[in-house]
UniProtKB/TrEMBL annotation:
It catalyses: Hydrolysis of terminal non-reducing beta-D-fructofuranoside residues in beta-D-fructofuranosides. It is an enzyme of class 3 (hydrolase). It comes from the Eukaryota. Pfam families: Glyco_hydro_100 (PF12899). Keywords: Carbohydrate metabolism, Glycosidase, Hydrolase. This is Alkaline/neutral invertase.
Amino acid sequence: MCPLRINGSPNGNVKTLGSAGTIFEAEDPDILLRIMERPRAINVSFEERPSNELLSNHFECLSPHGRRSGFNSPRSYTSFEAHAMVGEAWENMKRSIVYYRRQPVGTVAAMDHSVEELNYDQVFVRDFVPSALAFLMNGEEEVVKNFLLKTLHLQSWEKMIDQFKLGEGVMPASFKVIHNPERNREILIADFGESAIGRVAPVDSGFWWIILLRAYTRHTGDSSLAEMPECQRGMRLILTLCLSEAFDTFPTLLCADGCCMIDRRMGVYGYPIEIQALFFMALRCALLLLKQDQEGKEFIERIVKRLHALSFHMRNYFWLDLKQLNDIYRYKTEEYSHTAVNKFNVMPDSLPDWVFDFMPTRGGYFIGNVSPARMDFRWFCLGNCVAILSSLATPEQASAIMDLIESRWDELVGEMPLKICYPALESHEWRIVTGCDPKNTRWSYHNGGSWPVLLWLLTAACIKTGRPQIARRAIELAENRLSKDHWPEYYDGKTGRYIGKQARKFQTWSISGYLVAKMMLEDPSHLGMISLEEDKQMKPLMKRSTSWTC
C-alpha cells in the first residue's frame, strides 16, 4: 500500500499498466455517476431519518479540477477544543484520495514512501469504509457516491481464478487506477481474490458495500442512489450468494480462512464471528434498502427468515459468559437426539486455560467461531463491535461486552487501542494454525496486534451502549502516539507498545478511524449512519445464561 505519485495527471495515484488483475474499463464513465437532480427524503422509522448536519464553518477549497470541495479542512470541530492531530489527519486524508477520470473514487490504503508498494496503493473496500464515514460526516458525499457506483461497476465484471468463475455477486477486495499508455487513458484494475494471499475471495466486501450504501442513504436522506436499478440488482446479487441453499445445518455462513480483515491464515475458517456479524448487519441494511417490487419482496421474505434463525443461533451458541463457561466445563459428550445439551459435541478438555482467567464475573462476549466439535474462544474486536451496532447483541449482551472491555482494559486496549484479537497464538499452536507465518508472530499484526482503525468501531459501540467515557479514554491513549509515530497500520507487543515490525506508516484507515471516532464523540447523532436499533420481533427466548444475571 503505497504513497501517492504525481504523474502529470490530476490523479495522484495513476499507475502504468503492468500488474496482474482483472481489468475493467467503463466505456461511458458517466453513465452511473450523473447527479440525481432531486434527492428524496426517506420517511420511514425514526432510525432511518437523516441525521442533522454539523453546524459549523466550512473552509472551502477547490479540488484539482475546480470543483468546490471540503477535502482540505474539516467542517466541524468548532464547538470543542480541536486536537492538533485533527488538522493533520484531514491533510493526510486529502492526500490519500484517488481520482479516476477526474472523479474522486476512494482513498489508497497507505501513503508510505519508504517501502515497496505491494498492494497498499490500492483502494480497498473494507479500508475505505471509515474514510467514507469521515467524508460523510464532513459533508463530502461525492467521493462516497462515486466509490459505491464504481465498485458496483466492478461487481458486474466477469471474475475468473485459473479456470474457475466466481459468483456474479462477488465484490472486489480492492481496485486501483492505472494509466494505459497505448490508449492514453485511465482504466481500473480490480482484485477479486486472484492476487490475494491464499487466493481467497473477500466475503466481507459485499457486506461492507451494503452497509456503506445504507450509511450514505441514512446520512444524506437521498434514497435515489439506493433505488437505482443497478444498485438494487447489486444488492440482490450479493444476497443471492449468501442466501443460497446448500448442505448447511446452521444459518451462519461457512467461510475459508483469510476472507475478511484477517486476510491471512489465522484459524478463522468455518463460521468466524466477524463475517457472521457483518452478514447480520448487511441483511438488516438490505431490508431497509430493497424496493417493495416483486423481486425485492422475494428477497425480503428470505432475509426475514434468515435473520430470525441467525439471531437465535448467534445469541445462544456464540455467546459466552461466566455461567455459560462453567456449563461448557461440565459438558457431557457423545450426546445423541434433539434433547442434547452439548449440541456441537464440544470436548470440555479443549477449553484453553487462559479463558478461565480472562472471563470476568460480570461481562461476556461472542466467541470467535462455533462449529462441530470446535469452539474458538478468542476475542475478536470487530465482530463484537459490529454485533453491538447491528443489534445482533441484545441490549444486555451489548452491556456485558462493554463490561468485559472495562474489566480487561490492559489486555484488550493496553497502551494503544485496540487488540484485533486476544490472546495471541504462540509456540506449537502458532506453527500449526498459521503455518509458521512470519508476519503473524505472537502479538503482531493479526495475531494479537493492536489496530488503531478499530477505534471508530469501539467509539460507536460505546456511544450506543451509553459508555462514551470508555471511548474518550481510548482516544486519549491514541492521541499520545499516533501522530508522533506517523499513523502506523498496527502496533506490536502484548500491550501495543511497539510500532508493528512490518506496519506501513500513514495508513489511511488509521487516520480516518481516528477522525470518525472524534467526530462521532462530538456529535453522537452521526451514530445513526452505522447503527441499527433492536428489532423486537427477532428477540428469541434466551435459553442460555447471560452475565447480567450474575
